[in-house]
Amino acid sequence: MAKQPATTSRTLPDVLPLRMLDSLGAWTLGLLDHAGSATLLLLDALRWAWLGIFTKRVRFGLSALVSQMLRVGVRSIGIVSLVSGCVGLILALQLAPPLDEFGRKDLVANIISVAVLRELGPLIGAIVLTGFAGASIAAEIGTMVVSEEIEALEAHALNPVRFLVVPRVLASIISMTCLAIIAVVVAIVSALYVSNAVLGIPFSTFISNMLDQAKPVDFLTGVFKGAVFGLLIGVIACTNGLKVSGGAAGVGKATTGTVVQSVVAIVIADLAFTAVFFALGLV
Hints:
The chain is mainly α. The protein is 83% helix and 0% strand. The protein has one domain (61-280).
């Protein structure tokens, strides 16, 4: 009787690295595919926005932009003001005890002004807008994809990027810029109030220290960050919405992915800006 050839079997330690490498490769390819889709969508949206603003043959759709700004930006003012006001109170109360040990409790204004203007103002507004409006945009466009409304637009020779993406991306940029300014103002006002009412720092001292420490470039960098964060939120939300598949489950997945990806992209962009500004001597 012929002897059967010996079968070779891989043990778990041999297979595990291959599975990890396979998962890493699939994740990397998926990330590159998603980033490429978002970049192409952004370029297409910029092209339609340029044609709508600077040419007469393409109507811009100002009413759609205003409608999206009301839905995305105006309705976010309350929650952004609440969160930024609480952050201002927290910073003032947390910074006072260690500074008081050195007899410089009045420096609370110096630290808060720089932190809020450069970082916390645009960052708070962006994170709130991501949960409030970014997920809503992805769910809205995803529902239109599932219900075949996008195909209906294309059947009528209406470009979905022009009519759906451009107003939402522009509204996210403009709204996020305004929300960053609102967050800065509310955080500083709340810190000013608690510093005077609880910590005993006079209004004149707080304002004088803040003006001595803060520079116009701090405010401008914060506003610029807010605009870029708004662009990221709008593009990521629209990209995930247009790529929805699989019915209601796909809409939920796109909504969750929008929030996670937007927050990660915002933090990475914030780190990149901070590194660049540090290299240029702007911080």
